[in-house]
Amino acid sequence: MSHLSATAQPPGPVLAIESSCDETACAILSPTGACLAQRVVSQDGHADFGGVVPEIAARAHLALLPGLVEATLADAGLSTTDLGFVAASTGPGLIGGLIVGTSFAKGLALALDIPFVAVNHVEAHALTARLPGIVPDGAPFPYLLLLVSGGHCQCIAVDGVGHYRKLGGTIDDAAGEAFDKVAKMLGLGWPGGPALEKLAQQGNPNAIPLPRPLLRRPGCDFSFSGLKTAIAQKLAPFGQAPLPHQFAADLAASFQQAVADVVADRINHALDMMPQARLLVAAGGVAANTALRTRLEEVAQQRGLRFAAPPLKLCTDNAVMVGWAALETWRESAERGLPTPNNTTLRPRPRWPLEDMAQRFEPGLTQA
Ligand code: KG4
Ligand code: ZN
Questions:
Q1: Which ligand has an atom closest to residue 316 CA?
Q2: 114: closest CA among 123, 103, 106?
Q3: pLDDT at res. 48
Q4: Which UniProt keywords are present, listed alphabetically (predicted)?
């Protein structure tokens, strides 16, 4: 079932590009949002540094994009002249990568004389649950979004396309950052989240007592730095000596449990702040974590709400969500009687608050 009415559909498929961090991705979606092809390259070259190196990422995007776009078009059996418009993540994120992806997409759109739609990367995560086929009735607004990734950790009331209210967020590290840092302390590879989850499967989540930062405090802010410090203290007695495998596994499992406990508590508070929500959605890379998903599912069930989390490959950075957010923007503009969106003059921006996204639909305001 499509969310896009006939009049609100673009004349052809959208080609979307994602390059805001260390995933170089391209996807092609039909005007109704069906994924015709998608490719994601998770860049290597960062692991040795234990984190994304912006300059390496930007150069890799530049090297990868032309071939990736060509291959994605071939997968879909399309040529550039079949496209209706082009979209790209234009922020927030690492500016070098954003410039590469946005410039590539704008250049393609200008050469083909079709529109370019700038997409807010966080909004793309927020709207992923509305992709056809993820939630049976298409995730109607309003819903509560938990966005948990390497750079973000927020509870957002999603009232409509462009209408977002931040209910709470992290006061220090993002959840993914905490996973990555703890994984690094445990000597695991990078990115740390998936490696830590794998190790935790062999551990006892109740073996090692750890703090639950902000548990039962009012509101729905998060804090992870105290948890990280507690892990460092547990590891200190070992010095440079190799960690016993079972201890490392128990610590990973206990950390994961502590994160799940605080996130479940914070989400309960966020739901109290948004009584109109009928659906809880988790998005962002950390939403790929099975233990966390299970806990969130329990919270939703206890409160009589539905829970949705996109499939794993749509939780981490990808271009399908970028194409979908662009289609939602297109539809919303059409429904409000606004001109076809075309953002060729909009510049990439490392910071782009979700609260700014309503401006697009205010008549008379041009995005520059
Ligand atoms: O959304 P994402 O792909 O990129 C952005 O940060 O925008 O999220 C990446 C983050 C990384 O911190 C990674 O360690 C974490 O998501 N992550 C996980 C898992 N898979 C990815 N964290 C915990 N468990 C996982 N299975
Ligand atoms: Zn992301």
A1: 1
A2: 106
A3: 77
A4: Acyltransferase, Cytoplasm, Iron, Metal-binding, Transferase, tRNA processing
- Residue spans per domain, the chain: 14-130+315-361, 143-309
197 is in an annotated binding site: yes
With CA atoms as reference, report the closest residue to 34 among 57, 83, 77, 1. Answer: 1
pLDDT digits over 259-315, tens only?
A: 999 999 999 999 999 999 999 999 988 999 999 999 999 999 999 999 999 998 998
Q: Could you say which of 3.40.50.10860, 3.80.10.10, 3.40.50.790, 3.30.420.40 is the CATH number of the domain covering 143-309?
A: 3.30.420.40
Q: How confident is the model at residue 368 (pLDDT cuts 50, 70, 90)?
A: very low
pLDDT exceeds 70 at position 120? yes
Instruction: Please write the tens of the pLDDT for every residue from 123-168.
Output: 999 999 999 999 988 999 999 999 999 888 999 999 999 999 999 9
Tokens of 240: 């440079």
- Specify the pLDDT at position 43: 84
**Nearest ligand by distance to the CA of 282:** 1
Neighbours of 337 (CB within 10 A): 7
Q: How far is the CA of 122 from the centre of ligand 1 (A)?
A: 14
| DSSP sequence for 328-362 | HHHHHHHHTTPPPP--TTPPP-S---GGGGGGGGS
Q: Are domains 14-130+315-361 and 143-309 of this chain identical in fold?
A: yes
- Protein residues whose CB sits closer than 6 Å to any atom of ligand 1: 21, 149-151, 176, 179-180, 191-194, 197, 284-286, 288-289, 316-317
Cα 3 to Cα 254: distance, rounded to the nearest angstrom: 42
What is the number of the ligand 1 atom nearest to the C-alpha of 315?
Answer: 1
Q: Distance, CA 286 to ligand 2 centroid (Å)?
A: 10
Q: Does residue 306 sit in helix, strand or coil? A: strand
Q: What percent of the chain has pLDDT over 70?
A: 96
**Does the 14-130+315-361 domain belong in CATH 3.30.420.40?**
yes
